[in-house]
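Hi Prof. W.,

I finally got the Fe-S-cluster-containing dehydrogenase component prediction working! I wasn't sure whether to trim anything, so I left the full sequence exactly as given:
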Amino acid sequence: MKTITIDPRKCVGCRNCEMACAYEKSKSSCEVDFANIRVNDYIEERFVVPMTCFHCEEAWCLKVCPAHAISRDPETNAVILDQTKCAGCKMCILSCPYGNIHFDHDKKVSFKCDLCGGDPRCVTHCISGALQFEEVDDAITRKRVRTDHKIKAMYLDANK
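And this is what came out:
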């Protein structure tokens, strides 16, 4: 099983990941509002953090979706949102502790990272190596948990 890992210390804020994701999803535009990855700027700290779905082991979005539009792909282990089933209630958005599920106001449905079917374009186009698509083993899992806590703490502190 593979997952996207993020090393914010390597991110240069180029936003290639956002544009690659947006283009992959639209096939015609680099409109970053529709990207499943977002680069958050912490200007005072001079720090940028790319954020995308962590495909959590205990995925609250999957548990709270009343339309059963969210499932786990058995091959990639990705948490997948089927927009054709989405009721647009935004419960998944409210349940995500990282704010990594977004809403398309025109289509009135949620959207999130699907790992591009196992070949994430954000990783392919990351020039600094901040994004990696790696096999999950115990060491990476521990690192990811530590990073998740650090990012969550930074995110909560930034919103005070």
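DSSP finds five helices and eight strands in the chain. Does that look reasonable to you?

Thanks,
D.
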